[in-house]
Amino acid sequence: MTDSALRLPRRASRKRKEGRSRWGENNLAGYLFISPWLIAFFAFAFIPMVLSFALAFTDYHILRGWNFIGLDNFQRMFYNDVRYWRSVSATVKYVVFAVPLRLVFALGVAMLLNTNRRGVAFYRAAFYAPSVVGASVAVAVMWREVFNREGLVNAILGQFGQSSIWWLGHPDYAIWTLILLAAWQFGSPMLIFLAGLKQIPEQLYESASIDGANGIQKFVRITLPLLTPVIFFNLIMQLIAGFMTFTQAFIITNGSGRPLDTTLFYALYVYKRGFETYEMGYASAMAWVMLAVIALLTAIVFRTSSHWVYYETDEGI
Amino acid sequence: MSSAENPVSRSLPYAGSARLSPPWYQRKAVRTVLYHVFVGLATLAMLYPLLWLFGSSLKGPSEIWTRQTALIPNEIHFDNYKNGWDGFGDISFATFYKNSFFYAGVGTLLTVSASAVVAYGFARIKFRGKRIWFGLMLLTLMLPIQVQIIPQYIMFNELGWINTFYPLLLPRLGGQAFFIFMIVQFIRGIPRELDEAALIDGCGQGGIFFRIILPQLKPVIITAAIFSFYWTWEDFLTPLLYLNSPKLYTISLALRTFSDPSGATNWGEVFAMSALSLVPVFLIFVFFQRYLVQGIATTGLKG
Amino acid sequence: MMKTKKGWLITLLVLVAMILPGAAALGQDETVELRMAWWGSQTRHDQTIAVIELYKEQNPNVEIIYEFSNWDDHWTKLATQAAGGDLPDIIQHDYQRIQEWVTNDQLLPLDPFIESGVIDVSNIAEASLAGGRVNEQLYGFNLGNNSETFIIDVDLLEQAGIEIPPIDWTWDDFEEIALKIHEELGIYAIGGNLHYSEHWKGTYITCCDAYAYNAEGDGLGYTEEQDQYFVDYLNLIKDLIDAGAIPPIEETIARTGLSVEDAYIVTQQAAMEYGWSNMLVAVWNAAGEDRTFIEHSVPSMADGYPRNYIKPSMFWSISKNSDHPEEAAKFIDFFTNSVEANEIMMAERGVPISSAVREALLPQLNPAQQAMFDFLGAVEDYNSPIRPPDPVAHGDINSNVYLAQVVEPFLYGQMSAEEAVALLRQEAEILLAQ
Predict the structure, then answer these.
(1) Which of B213, C203, C208, C327 is the most buried (most CB within 10 A)?
(2) DSSP summary character for residue B126
């Protein structure tokens, strides 16, 4: 049977077929709809962003003022600053592990919870709960306790004969407490996946069942393709958020990035330079370097998206 | 016998088996039990730290640090809640709650509504320069806030808005990049057939937005509202800088002022108030997540 | 309209109507608004607010608007407000940071108010005020005296059969005692912050009567030959860690930022603790009434100079852009000299600098406060003069060099003490020369 409803959706090759000028350009309506954002942007965000960019080329010290110094900040950052490179490596390591872990847990659990079984509402709340705790003082204390020498993690590891470790003090392991914290708080991307899963029509699965598809086939041929816009979104957002992680690192390491700067995340280092030694010009320079890197990565992901993201509609941005 | 030919297997929900009764691992009851056991255990792992928080909030000062891993205190100290509630000076947590609700409630309303409107513009309308503005919008997410707050503060200071909620709420009239992007992605998942039909019927863009798209956005709007509420509830940096008077403090701010390494801290009270501050967010989640359940049964595809 | 007589009359009436209220107001006392910011924890917030209420009762025309936060937030906020030209009138300030704020012209000198008698210093020793002076002028008004201390758990020492050491004990004495405590009791001798920069500075004061930084603030204050003293100190710590008498660095770092209640001295996992003297109240509270502590001086290098000096725990400063500096000064005077106010605070910020206040408080002191007062009294008789304020580069050096590149890598075994100290000299000089 080749009913169109049963045909499982194919990849994004359909995208460019339908008429580009079908809708025509509708500048007035377009700008009208995005006007709230435009106005707010120019009123509140534009000037601070431009100013911080300008400050990156000065030696702005919060209490003193600024002088133009050209590219000196960048030179110092790349050639003279040991801690800078430590912060880069800590951040990269964190992103490489935390982002995939989070996304995998989020998707896996969302699929588990995408049912109408009894009690699923409770489970949903439970899995979202860790994210709600966020980055509060209480989380910091609690997480430290869990990784304490007498804490839960060591207790569990002890069952396997592993001796107790001072997690937060060990240069090789401290960053893992933060990676695990990120993985534990997968509630937000999970909810988004859940909303995306809900958008996939039941009929597709039913039809596929009738055709004899099993669970894995259904996942690969129906779920994944239709979920790609959401995966795309979550991937980009988690990447950006991962690189800019600040609060968790700040409260758990007490703002220090110890031990040995293995938890000195980039945003944390920016904060320290800006607010501890008041070198806001230098901090701005660092911030804009990070922006450039994240923007580049995001652009790459956007670029590749036309190959793997499938939209019901055929518009690109 | 293939599944296509066997009349029995056609109408049974499990694939490909010729038997009349399913193997034990496919029996519905067993699967249900397995599901609950597996998910239940995982839930426990998720919840343990939170249970610890609640348990500790009931512990007295002598127990908090001596019996750390224990979830259930030996003595229950409800007065942690009472004393914590009293706050500082004569400002109790009732004030902080009120401020937090105001900030999070109004903030969420503004953010989500504005984001939906803006998202429709980006997702459904072609107009010149769209790419540039969209890219710029994403860019705003990538600059760490630490280097923006000083210029922002100076700007708001000139406007005389320090010690008010204006700097916290007014920028939200434009939505927030995260939510705009999220809703854009969802709108793009909605097929255009209904839009086209409405256009033929003479509906304008506004009509399409309100009558066609918006109703279908329910899951994502709910999700956005949950996120926005919770993130605003937790936010402390902007309240720290712009809300000077303790009478305006939000809970997030108040909790941070409770403890300081330089002095004695009553941790029982800190935990109690932290636990209490989680309750509203949780309730909002529980209350709204039923809308996530409903989802979309059909998207208008002919079946 | 102005051309007619009626027009003139109306204009005149309007002008008068605008001026009258202002004129009427001039006749009364204006309400003065003062903004105030401090850091602390809940106890301090409650107490300070109570003192402010007290002041308001006695000065109804002064409205004090207060802001309070924890330590980190306080400085984040102040920096932002300074950039915006919007600092509060009265700011709680810190000895290690005040130099920078003065150099950048953010604070008002307080000497005029002392000279004019607005702030009464008749019961205050100059030594107590000295810590707040930068370039001879007073910018920070001492809120309570502090000194570095080793808090000792008397019972534990007794159990180990050790006598309380004399006030001029040395690090060698400490090593002996530490090893004995570990041997006899199986616990740590001390909680474990023996590697902070205070000890680096302390090494040079006690060995050589020298400061870590030189007088101009553009170089180190000790010679290369004298590097050896700090090498010895670092090796001492290493030996004690290896012997199990003090916690290893992983443990110390994993436990930073934990509260007083979790400190080893409270849980009896260590017999001593290093900190500032005003810590004792919190420690004793957490430990419980049945314990006994005393505060003791910090060891010196062998045959050296006294280590302890009297340090202001924190200051009140007045910001340069304050509209009502004199009212602010009056409040500072009240805070310092009013016995009633100090009875509310009970030395929470440190031992009061006014001898009259101290005397008035004596009968009301609890054991912890009593121990603190006793200790400060002892230090008054045996101390080094207060050091000059740290140069501006100190913050940078402390966090980016001393801890991050030198001492902590050394303690993690990544370099020898000699290498560490040489690196310190090299990097610090670079930063100081800027």
Answers:
(1) C203
(2) -
CA distance A211 to A208: 5
Contact predicate C280/C198, CB 8 Å: no
Tens digit of each residue's pLDDT (9 = 90 or more) over C10-32: 656 555 545 544 444 444 457 89
Chain C touched by B152 (CB under 8 Å): no
The residue among C168, C197, C189, C205 whose CA lies nearest residue C296 is C168
A169–C396 CB contact, under 8 Å: no
* Whether C430 contacts chain A with CB within 8 A: no
Q: Kindly tell me if the per-residue pLDDT of C385 is higher than 90.
A: no
Instruction: Give the gap in angstroms from C-alpha C368 to the nearest C-alpha of chain A.
Output: 27
Q: Which domain holds residue B62?
A: 7-82
Residues of chain B positioned with their CB less than 8 A from the CB of A244: 142, 144
Judge if B179 and B41 occupy the same domain: no
The C-alpha atoms of residue B248 and residue B257 are separated, in whole angstroms, by 14
The tens digit of pLDDT for each residue in C345-376 reads 988 888 999 989 999 999 999 888 999 999 99
Contact A82, C405 (CB under 8 A): yes
CA distances from B59 to A148, B74, B149, B268, C426 (A): 19, 8, 39, 6, 51
User: How much is the pLDDT for A155?
Assistant: 79
Nearest CA in chain A to B125: A30
Return the CATH number at B179. Answer: 1.10.3720.10
CB atoms inside a 10 Å sphere around CB B238:
22
The structural domain count of chain B equals 2
Closest by CA to C203, choosing from C177, C227, C223, is C227
HEC string for A164-198: CCCHHHCCCCHHHHHHHHHHHCCHHHHHHHHHHHH
B90 and B237 both lie in a single domain: yes
Distance, in Å, from the CA atom of B272 to the CA atom of C351, rounded to the nearest integer, reads: 33
Q: Is residue C271 within a helix (H) or strand (E), and if so which, with residue range?
A: strand C270-276
- pLDDT above 70 covers a percentage of chain C that reads 93
Q: Do A63 and C250 touch (CB under 8 A)?
A: no
In the chain, the amino acid numbered A3 is D
CB B299 within 8 A of CB A203: no
Distance CA A232, CA A214 (A): 26
Mean pLDDT of chain C: 87
Q: Whole-angstrom Cα distance, residue C81 to residue C97?
A: 16
Q: How far apart are CA C283 and CA C301, in angstroms?
A: 27
- State the ipTM, two decimals: 0.82
Task: Indicate yes or no: CB of A64 within 8 angstroms of CB of C400.
Answer: no
Query: Which residues fall within 8 angstroms of residue B293, CB to CB, at 6 or more apart?
Result: A116, A121, A198
Q: How many angstroms away from the CA of A61 is the closest CA of chain C?
A: 9
Chain A: touching chains (3 or more CB pairs < 8 Å): B, C
User: Of A168, A137, A166, A148, which Cα lies nearest the Cα of A256?
Assistant: A168
User: Which of helix, strand or coil describes residue C338?
Assistant: coil
d(CA A261, CA A86): 6
Asked if the model's pLDDT at residue A22 lies above 50, the reply is no
pTM for this prediction: 0.84
On whether any CB of chain B is under 8 Å from the CB of A296, the answer is no
Substitution target in A35, A58, A127, A136 with the highest count of B β-carbons within 10 Å is A136
| Residue B58 and residue B144 in one domain | no
Query: How far is it, in rounded angstroms, from Cα B256 to Cα A179?
Result: 24
Q: Which of A299-313, B280-294, C49-63 has the highest mean pLDDT?
A: C49-63
